From TrEMBL:
Taxon lineage: Bacteria, Pseudomonadati, Bacteroidota, Bacteroidia, Marinilabiliales
Gene3D superfamilies: P-loop containing nucleotide triphosphate hydrolases (3.40.50.300)
Alphabetical list of SMART domains matching this protein: AAA
Superkingdom to which the source organism belongs: Bacteria
TM annotation in the entry: none
Name of the protein this chain belongs to: Peptide/nickel transport system ATP-binding protein
GO biological process: transmembrane transport
Length: 203
C-alpha cells in the first residue's frame, strides 16, 4: 500500500499549496484524480514520486521508509515526455534505463522496432510518451502515477495505450493514480475517482 499522511508543501515559505493531504493506494487499484488547473495535482504527483520533498507529513510504500535507496517503486509519467529523456541517447538506450523490458509490452504500446534506433528529436510527443511508459514499468515498479499522459494523443492512440497499461496494471497488480481533466477517461479507467479539492478539503 502507498500511504500518504498529513502531507503539506509550499514553493514559498508559509504559502501552502496544500497542507493536510491524506491518501492511500492499494496494489491493483486504479484511482482517478481531477481538479481545476493550478490547484496542485502535479506538485502532489512529484512529491509521491520523490522529485519534491514535502514540508510536512510523510509517505510510506508497503510499510517502508520513503524515498528508498535505489530505484523508486513509485514511477511518475508526466505531461512532457521530452523533458525526461536524454536528447543525446537513442531510444534503445533510453529504454535500457529500466533494465529488462518486454518486447511484447512494447508491441502492445505500439512502439515500432524502427523507432529504437532514433533520437528523441526524431519522434513525436505521443511516440515519446509510449517510451516513457515502457521505461516507467520496470520490474521493481509497484505504483504508477500518470499525470495527463495521453492529452497529446488522438482517440485511437489513447485507447491503445490505456488498454496496454491497464492490462499490465491488472497482471502485475500495480497501484495506479491517473491524473486528468477528462472525467470520461477517468470513468472508463478507474475504480474510484477523487477530486483534488475533496482530497485537500477532507483532510
Ligand atoms: N516551481 C514552482 N515554483 C513556484 N510555484 C510553482 C512551481 N510549480 C508550480 N507552482 C505553482 O503551484 C501551483 C500548483 O501547480 P501544479 O502544477 O501542481 O498544479 P496542477 O493542479 O497540476 O495544474 P494543471 O492542472 O494546470 O497541470 C500553481 O499555482 C503553480 O503556479
Amino acid at each position: 500500500m502507498l500511504t500518504v499522511k498529513n502531507l503539506g508543501f509550499c514553493y514559498q515559505p508559509g504559502q501552502w499549496i496544500f497542507n493536510k493531504i491524506e491518501f492511500s493506494l492499494k496494489p491493483g487499484e486504479v484511482v482517478g484524480l481531477f481538479g481545476q488547473s493550478g490547484v496542485g495535482k502535479t506538485t502532489f504527483a512529484k512529491i509521491m514520486a520523490g522529485y519534491l520533498k514535502p514540508d510536512k507529513g510523510w509517505i510510506a510504500v508497503d510499510g517502508k521508509a520513503y524515498p528508498p535507496k535505489g530505484r523508486n517503486p513509485v514511477q511518475l509519467i508526466g505531461q512532457h515526455p521530452e523533458k525526461t529523456i536524454n536528447p543525446h541517447w537513442r531510444m534503445k538506450q533510453v529504454l535500457s534505463e529500466s533494465g529488462e523490458y518486454s518486447n511484447k509490452f512494447l508491441r502492445k504500446l505500439g512502439i515500432s522496432k524502427e523507432w529504437m534506433h532514433r533520437f528523441p528529436s526524431q519522434l513525436s510527443a505521443g511516440e515519446l510518451q509510449r517510451f516513457c511508459l515502457a521505461r516507467a514499468i520496470a520490474l521493481e515498479t509497484k505504483y504508477l502515477i500518470a499525470d495527463e499522459i495521453t492529452t497529446m494523443l488522438d482517440a485511437i492512440a489513447q485507447a491503445q495505450i490505456w488498454q496496454a497499461v491497464l492490462q499490465l496494471v491488472q497482471q502485475r497488480q500495480l497501484g495506479m493514480l491517473v491524473i486528468s481533466h477528462e472525467l470520461p477517461l477517468l470513468k472508463q479507467t478507474c475504480h474510484r475517482i477523487l477530486s483534488f479539492e475533496e482530497l485537500v478539503g477532507n483532510s
